[in-house]
Amino acid sequence: MDDCLFCKIIEGKISCVKIYEDNKFLAFLDIDPVNKGHTLILPKKHFETFLDMNEKELTKIMLFTQKIAKSIVNGTKADGFNIMLNNKRAAGQVIDHVHFHIIPRFENDGFKHWSHSSYKPGEDSKIANEIKRFL
Fold first, then answer.
1. Active-site amino acid positions
2. For residue 61, what are the domain limits?
3. Residue 73, exposed/middle/buried by CB under 10 A (0-12, 13-18, 19+)?
4. Cα–Cα distance list, 114 to 93, 106, 111, 124 (Å)
5. In this structure, what CATH number is given to the domain that contains residue 52?
6. Which residues contact 121 (CB under 8 A, 6 or more apart)?
7. How many folded domains does the chain comprise?
8. Contacts of 23 (CB under 8 A, 6+ apart)
9. Phi first, then psi: what are they for 85, rounded to 5°?
């Protein structure tokens, strides 16, 4: 895609601090990290969201992500890590090229989790049944 920032990074038209790449995927440091070592993982082939990727690509990107996550934890001496994936604007996706965030976590790093809500009586079963209809 001509206007995709991540495609331009993959093509070398825009620089990044690469962690690792192979013929299918690229890992590089996020320019606006939550914590130092925050890394983006993306396929070199353009897919807009997670749902656009096929099973083979999903399997491979998860194995690649695991490999990079291990290195991030060891390299940053992190106490833990998050793997995050935003799909579509409502979920916080800013660039329309699927990408995972690996965020190293440290005790008391100040990174907060999202808020929680609850179901009204019977609402959970109704929503579960609606979801099951599409399986």
1. 99
2. 5-132
3. middle
4. 16, 17, 10, 20
5. 3.30.428.10
6. none
7. 1
8. 44
9. -145, 120
For residue 126 the two structure tokens come to: 């109704």
CB-CB neighbours of 68 under 10 Å: 20
The sign one gets for the Cα dihedral 65, 37, 22, 10 is positive
Q: pLDDT by residue (tens digit) across 37-83?
A: 999 999 999 999 999 999 999 999 999 999 999 999 999 999 999 99
Contact 96, 90 (CB under 8 A): no
| Tokens of residue 64, six digits | 């690649």
13 sits in the region (left: phi over 0; alpha: psi -120 to 50; else beta) called alpha
Q: In whole angstroms, what is the distance from residue 72 CA to residue 115 CA?
A: 27
31-43 burial string, b = 16+ CB within 10 Å, else e?
eeebbebbbbbbb
Q: What's this model's pTM, rounded to 2 decimal places?
A: 0.90
Lookup result for tokens 């609850």: 118
